[in-house]
């Protein structure tokens, strides 16, 4: 099955060029020119990978990736920054915000293709190993006993909030939230936030 790629860049010529190249390589590509258009597209179609610029009007790539990483549906979606911002601090900020790869313009299309293929391959392996094949049903949610505060934290994690945001919302310190999240991992036999969200979805928990 062909993989779906979302390409977000306000450079129309570059977008057309990259889209055509990836189409020729067997991918389905949808191109959008603003972050707002990208968010609308993500509401109506599943994408296996996102390629985005950083410098865009209104909402830039940094803001867009923040929004995506707060959403459980896109928490682990591979995201490539394809941008002219090539300084070390730009790259660090990109990786800190959760990008999977960072490629500076001008770039080699062969390098982009290699990154795309490897990210998709690794993501598929991760899903098979840590999510799809993981038997969450072995934990009966009736046997899962959570305190009121643990349940509150679990609900906010499921909504995509990060620990600092949860701490602020519940008016608790960050270390306390980290302890609650660690307890949730232990009680649900999960290892990370992605698996925790998957546990809730598979068991129809928190709904």
UniProtKB/TrEMBL annotation:
Keyword Plastid assigned: yes
Residue ranges of domain HTH luxR-type in the record: 139-204
CDD domains linked: LuxR_C_like
Signal peptide range: none
Biological processes per GO annotation: phosphorelay signal transduction system; regulation of DNA-templated transcription
4-aspartylphosphate modifications at: 53
Keywords recorded for this protein, A-Z: Phosphoprotein, Plastid
The Response regulatory domain, residue ranges: 4-120
Protein name, entry field: TctD-like protein
Organism per entry: Gelidium elegans (Red alga)
């Amino acid at each position: 099955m062909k993989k779906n790629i979302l390409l977000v860049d306000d450079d129309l010529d570059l977008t057309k060029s990259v889209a055509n190249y990836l189409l020729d390589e067997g991918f389905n590509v949808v191109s959008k020119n603003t972050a707002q258009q990208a968010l609308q597209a993500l509401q109506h179609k599943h994408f296996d990978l996102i390629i985005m610029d950083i410098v865009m009007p209104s909402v830039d790539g940094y803001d867009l990736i923040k929004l995506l990483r707060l959403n459980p549906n896109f928490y682990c979606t591979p995201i490539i920054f394809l941008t002219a911002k090539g300084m070390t601090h730009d790259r660090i900020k990109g990786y800190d915000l959760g990008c999977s790869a960072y490629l500076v313009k001008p770039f080699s299309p062969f390098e982009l293709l290699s990154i795309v293929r490897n990210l998709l391959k690794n993501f598929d392996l991760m899903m098979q190993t840590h999510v799809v094949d993981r038997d969450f049903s072995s934990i009966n949610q009736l046997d899962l006993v959570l305190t009121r505060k643990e349940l509150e934290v679990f609900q906010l994690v499921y909504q995509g909030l990060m620990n600092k945001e949860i701490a602020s919302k519940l008016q608790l310190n960050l270390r306390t939230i980290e302890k609650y999240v660690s307890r949730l991992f232990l009680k649900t036999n999960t290892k990370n936030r992605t698996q925790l969200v998957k546990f809730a979805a598979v068991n129809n928990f928190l709904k």
